[in-house]
Design brief:
By secondary structure, the protein is mainly beta. The chain contains 2 helices and 24 strands.
Amino acid sequence: MELVFQEKITQYPNLIFCEEREQEETVDLIIPDRYPDGAEIIHAYGTPLVYSLDLGSDSITISGEVQAGVLYEGTEGQLRCVRGRVPFSFRREFQERGEDLQPLCSCRLQSIDARLLNSRKLLLRAAVGCSIQIYGRTEFRSFDVEEPAPALQLKRTELPLRLPLSLGEKRFSLQEELPLPGEHPEAAHLLKAVYDLQVTEQKAVGDKAVFKGELRIKALYESEEEALHSHSFTLPFSQYVSMDRDVEDCELHTELSLLSADTQPDGSDGSRLLTSVELCARCMATGVTKHGLIEDAFCTDGELSPEYVQQKITACLDRQEVRQTVELRWDQSVSSVLCAYAYPGKGLRRREGEKVLLEQGICCDVLYYDGDNRLRGCTLRGQMEHGMALKENARCRVEQIRCAEPTCTSGTEGITVRIPVELWIESTAEHELCAVSGGTVEALQETKKRPALLLRFTEDAEELWDIAKECKTSAEAIREANALQEGQVPANTLLLIPM
């Protein structure tokens, strides 16, 4: 006799590709004719912009550029800025196919520097890191019997798995007037503007992913008197992304990308800057879902030959938040610090058995005045380390990095910079699940009458289910007859087994 189980199909977005890539590009910048010859590089800066993300059935291409600039000192001590663009493109192919593919990607600047090739040409170099995740719609199949016959014994288990449940995307723009501090003079020329995006709060409400964030703009400008001034602006925003299902009580992860950014002094009012940015938010909702499985089955009045189905499913193990303060040093005589900007550098992972060491680089660009009151720049580099236990079949990645505003102390012995850093680390593992999906039952051909009771002595600890299966009786009958509370029978136990 064939035993038929009812099949239930659950769909969810499964991670089919995950990779972190790095790319270094260089461009030549020509100093405009109206600018003086270059004598010394002071500082290079940049912000990555993502122009396009093309996702095919077996490949993904992410294209963008680093919107950059180089501050240099002219032959007569003049400070000038040459702007440029460093294009980048990441293309990756993946073997595993899926339906309704959706990306979750982010790009960030890892390092940038420049040098003089000659008095009229600069070489600008930028390194960009890209985190790529691709999710495809996957089916999870579960099998069950709604009203099993009394003779059919089922070993059920329920697995609570934290899985991605929905992804959504939204583009939006921000335009804002940024007033300069009252004690600052009007801005004549903007020399530098770098941008940083942070998600400060996120919550799932119905079928919407609601989040709040901040756009931080670090601006350096020159007044009509050619005096330099620096100021950090914080532009808060609130948005939501529509998801394809109800995500109430889910945990959210939001990736923000800059698509375009422009900041300029207001031509009619030098006491403010005008900024305009376009952003893209990609949200993923993760929730705990309970998946019921039948691990094993047998019949008390027949011989069951079960059929099994095997499936693989990738689930999130946990998310950790790590906070550290990174201290960096610059051992040169410093009169005062004009501004400092911190950002994440290159990250490394080293595995040692069932332990993983994360090494996250931290960079800080500092503009300062030396002992002769000349403007100088330096890039300080350090790293934060975090070790964690991780099974060999699991993997982890840095989901988000946040560098707070650095604090600087300076003097004749140099500069000390302290940067509060927060890391969010996600750990995932692939689980192989095996479940009974059906089978065939053959009637027992007994040669003698079965006893009504058995006495059985356990020399070692045994599972109650295994004893019931061996004796072809129900685990519940053994539990009640012996007043057992646990699913495991201790060693050296005499059991009364109803047949």
